[in-house]
Each structure stands twice: as structure tokens, then as C-alpha cells.
Amino acid sequence: MTAVGSAGGAAPRCSDLSASLTLAGTAPTAQRWWLIEDPGPWRSRAVRESSKAWIAAFADRAGEHARVVLIRQHHPHHNRRSRTEQRMFTFAPGDQSVWGRTVREDENPIIDDLRDVPSGPEWEPTTDHPRAIVCTNGRRDRCCAEIGRSTLDALPADVTDQIWESTHLGGHRFAPVALVVPNGSVLGRVSAATLAEIARHDRLDLDTLRGRSDLSAPEQIAEISARLRWGLRSTRTHLTVTSSHASDDPSVTTVEVTGPVGEVHQVHTRSRNLDPMIASCDGAPSPVTVWEELD
């Protein structure tokens, strides 16, 4: 694979060096997402390094089941005004509704268990939430800053209020990276047109799917395979996925996906190790494992 340099002779970006990697099965995993409005500036580890103690505390409570990201509306030239109130949203992949609340400037909300919908009366279902978020955290990786922001700059005017910026989602090498709310699918190498289809019509570009974030890598591949086979592009379609390991070969995972009317799509997957490559622009090469669908 030939490295493609960026403008001005700078070192190749991780997204350039990873252009040949497949997207399917690379989504970060989370059983629940938490989105906290914060105008920034964002540091490299934006949640943990937040200037607000109550936001930083979310980093310790997230655990392996929940992911917390900061979000903000995208404005040209980064002209962001500070707010006296912040909005918070939470959802699990496949939810039909998003729960939200407003946090006043003098509040310090504490949520001990991030695995479930909070029970406080201030939380309620809302439709006033971003339809997708795109990582633009340049302090974490320049691919997300350069490619993510330029993609948002190219959005049609009628969808700009529905596609927000976010901190690290996972997978700089697949920038621009996006999360669909509340479908829970993570996308890679998205375009402004792809994002507009989500905002306007609840439709996914299946070629940009990395996987649904509540599924394992083999399950993500199978869910995408089923969507492609059945032509299911709607973000509102939620497929049931189950998996098991082959008794004679532990490296093989068999996944069954059940469709909207009970049809079943079975996929066999196997992991494969690739040569080391960088996962972020300033990182050192590390081994890469990919999952593939078997014939």
C-alpha cells in the first residue's frame, strides 16, 4: 500500500495510510451513549479533562458498557458562543426515543449508573436532538479535525442544525467518523451527502457502515451483511442479532440476523491479523486485527 501525503509535504495522515482497510466490524462498542453539550475548547481526552468537575466525573463512571462524548453545534470559522445552559442526551442503540434534559450553569448533576435511563423527573423523551454527530476533536487527531470539520462545512443549509460536532468516537483512521442517533450505528469515511440522507430521510449509506455499536465485531459484520442482502437502509430498522463460536474452530464465529418479518440471514466470520500500522496520526504502528465474512 502506498502512503498518500497531505498538502505541504506533511507526514501522511492515518486515514490516508488506512484507506485500504474495510469498514465493516470496526465500530466501537457501547450499550448506551451519553451526549453532553459543551462548546469547548476540547482537550485530547475531552471528557476526563473537562474544566467542569461534573463532566469529568462521567469518565470514571462510564465503564465498559457506556460511552460519553461532548457535542456542540457546528458553526463556520468555529464562532461558538458560550451557553448558560447545557443539554444532555442518552440513548441505547436501537431506541426509538432519546432521553434528554437541560443542565443549568449552577448545577452539578451526578449519575451513578450510566447503563440505564436516569429516573429523575428532569429527564424526558425528546425529539430535539442531533440526528448524527461527527468527530472533530483536533487535539486527539488531525484527521478528525481536518476531514471532519471540512465535511461539516459542506453540509446543506437545511440539515446543519441536525448534524453536530463531537469529541472522540473511535477510529481516527476512518475519518470522518459519525454516530447515528439513536440508531447507534457508527459510520466511517462519511460525506456531507451521506449525513444529509440521514437527517432528511432516515436513510443510511450502507457502504459507510462500520457497525452497530451494541454488537461485537462479528455481529457488526453480519448485521451489515443482512442490511445489504435485504436492502434495509432505514435508521429505524432494528435487527435482532445472535452469535456463537464454532466448536471445532474457536476463531470462527457464526452469527444469525433476524429480519423484520422473521427471515434469517446466517454469516460465518473469522479474524485475521494484518501487518502493523498507525491507528492515529501521532501514534506508533501496532498490530491490526480484522474480521471477515467467510464464503
Structure description:
- The protein has 295 residues and is an alpha+beta fold.
- It has a domain at 12-214.
- The chain is 17% helix and 28% strand.
- The protein is built from 5 helices and 14 strands.
- A 10-stranded mixed β-sheet has the order 5-4-3-1-2-7-6-8-9-10.
- β1 (32-37), α2 (53-61) and β2 (66-73) form a beta-alpha-beta unit.
- It is globular.
Report strand order across the widest sheet. 5-4-3-1-2-7-6-8-9-10
Structural class: alpha+beta
The value of Rg in angstroms is 19 Å
Tally of individual helices: 5
Beta-strand percentage range? 25-35%
Largest pleated sheet:
10 strands, mixed
Task: Indicate the overall shape.
Answer: globular
What is the strand tally? 14
Please state the average pLDDT score. Answer: 88
Q: Which bin fits the share of residues in helices?
A: 10-25%
The N- to C-terminal Cα distance equals 25 Å
Uncertain runs with pLDDT below 50, 5 residues or more? Answer: 1-8
**What is the string of SSEs from the N terminus onward?**
HEHEEEEEHEEEHEHEEEE
Element layout with pairings:
Blueprint: H1 14-17, E1 32-37, H2 53-61, E2 66-73, E3 85-91, E4 98-104, E5 124-126, E6 132-135, H3 142-153, E7 163-166, E8 178-180, E9 185-187, H4 192-201, E10 209-212, H5 217-230, E11 240-245, E12 252-258, E13 264-277, E14 286-293
Parallel strand pairs: 1-2, 6-7
Antiparallel strand pairs: 1-3, 2-7, 3-4, 4-5, 6-8, 8-9, 9-10, 11-12, 12-13, 13-14
